[in-house]
Amino acid sequence: MKVNANTEKQSKNRKPKEGKDLSRYNRIARFYDIFEKPMESFMFNGWRKRLFERMENSNNDIILEIGVGTGKNIPFYTNGRYIALDISKKMIKKAKDKTMKLGTELKADVDFIIADVEFLPFRDDTFDKVFTTFVFCSVENPVKGLKEANRVLRKRKKAFFLEHMLPKNKVLQPIFHIMNLVARLMGPEINRKTDRNIEEAGFKIVEQEYLLGTVFRLIVAEKF
Ligand SMILES: C[S@@+](CC[C@H](N)C(=O)[O-])C[C@H]1O[C@@H](n2cnc3c(N)ncnc32)[C@H](O)[C@@H]1O
Description:
By secondary structure, this protein is of the alpha/beta class. 36% of the residues lie in helices and 26% in strands. The chain is built from 6 helices and 7 strands. It has helices at residues 20-28, 32-55, 89-102, 142-152, 172-186, 194-200; strands spanning 62-66, 78-86, 107-114, 127-133, 153-164, 203-211, 216-223. Strands 3-2-1-4-5-7-6 form a 7-stranded mixed β-sheet, with helices on both faces. Helix 4 (142-152) crosses helix 6 (194-200). The radius of gyration is 16 Å and the shape is globular. The relative contact order is 0.15. The structure holds S-adenosylmethionine (SAM). S-adenosylmethionine (SAM) is lined by residues 25, 67-69, 72, 86-88, 91, 116-118, 133-135, 138-139, 145, 188.
């Protein structure tokens, strides 16, 4: 199947965002891995592994990672052909460097694209799987981005999301609202109801695993 995967440019009729969210991610790309290292070692890396175990990719799968960032999921890529996209050129550069370093250890094909999830440069029903990790807290219009993810996924195929959200615990919620003020300086909106957004975008949630209470969720959703 032909996928528009060989271009590093935003598709011609889509103007990349130039807002403060984009410049923020370009700016933090250099420090991102260092900043996240403690949480990565204690929690995130194990959760990434769990997400890939759930995906059960096969060699024929065409898989889209939205918001690849510095490429932290790339060491887990196996089986199939991957398209990794991000809106930030500097994040993509980091992801590419990571891929080069992996060399023959990487057991999958990967193409990188600079693109905005709100305007995906792919035809309807292109991918066998779509996934994100810690992305829909950052996307300016999450429901629009999720609708695009839904559009490019083939029918009855699954999308996988590892995302943080507003915890269900009412005592914790005010604390998270205060934390969100600080998080916004770095980029993400940590208190979104991404589970609800996923459903609003037209997916059916078929599995939801709560992580660290209900702060993080591993969600499997189907396009029907
Ligand atoms: C918090 S980082 C997570 C990166 C990576 N997925 C990870 O697990 O480490 C969020 C990423 O989403 C990207 N992003 C934000 N808005 C986006 C958009 N509209 N389209 C595509 N990528 C976007 C940012 O550039 C950034 O790399």
